[in-house]
Write a structure and sequence with these properties.
Distance between the termini: 136 Å
Radius of gyration: 46 Å
Shape: elongated
Number of helices: 9
Largest sheet: 5 strands, antiparallel
Order of helices and strands: HHHHEEHEEHEEEEEHHH
Strand order of the largest sheet: 8-7-6-5-9
Helix content: 25-40%
Structural class: alpha+beta
Number of strands: 9
Strand content: 15-25%
Length: 295
Amino acid sequence: MREQERQQGPAPVQTAQRAVSRSTSPTGSGAATPASREMLALQGLAGNAGTTRLLAQRRSGTPHPVQRAVGRGGGAANRVVQRMPWPDPAAAHRRMLEQGWQATEDGGYTRAPQPETGESAGGQQAGAAPQGREQEQEQAADEPITLRVLVRKNASFRDEDYLNNVGHSWVAFYKGDKFQSSAGFYPIGGQINEDAPHRSVPGEVRMNHDDPSNATTELSVPLDQKQFSKAQKYIQTNLNHEYNVVRFNCTDFVIGVHKAATGHSPPGRNLLLPNNPNDLHSGIKKKNNKDLQRK
């Protein structure tokens, strides 16, 4: 008999456990209801291991812990199932989407796919931008290049103050009608040796220093790419050339750029005097007037 009692004893306990399992079902239907896949994914991503285990128990039908109420009448009716407060699944789903997650077919979530290698966020190939730049460079290369010899005349040779008010010569480059750069030659610090003006002093090429609008006359010379490169090479070679009023001044520099690009000097040279802005100014005006008469 005792052996039979020992064998039959556990049966009521198992029955009670099943009853507890049924009574603690959130839906009250007597059967364990699996948690929604969205909530499982949400809790899993939050790293709440304890909540994840409770969800797993709920899905498998394992009884939840039960706390008995204190006082009279604390029977099965007063049993309170301890469970986590469930947020609104629809609201949680919206929050996940707002944070950049995407719902998967199995009810979970995944991050939005990253652009593949060589593809930008806009869906264009990364090589499209360089290709666009190459096309722009080709179009820029097709634009006509112009060398402009610019001269500012401040005073006439007959003026008593001419030596203290000498003008200036420089060059500028344009592509199409767009200004690209300018170059003018100066003594460093803008000073020459007053006691011996014929002596050389340190010189420098100043890039983009002179304003083309200050010129009183100009000569426009069309260049091809090869001629343009020769002019640029001459400028780079003479960036730190010594400045000399007689042998290498601002006008000598301009004549050198023009000759490097075209193979000949611009109009306005005077064999009796050092090269100077006034003679260059006069020679350019004469050439421009002749060109107008031919038209």
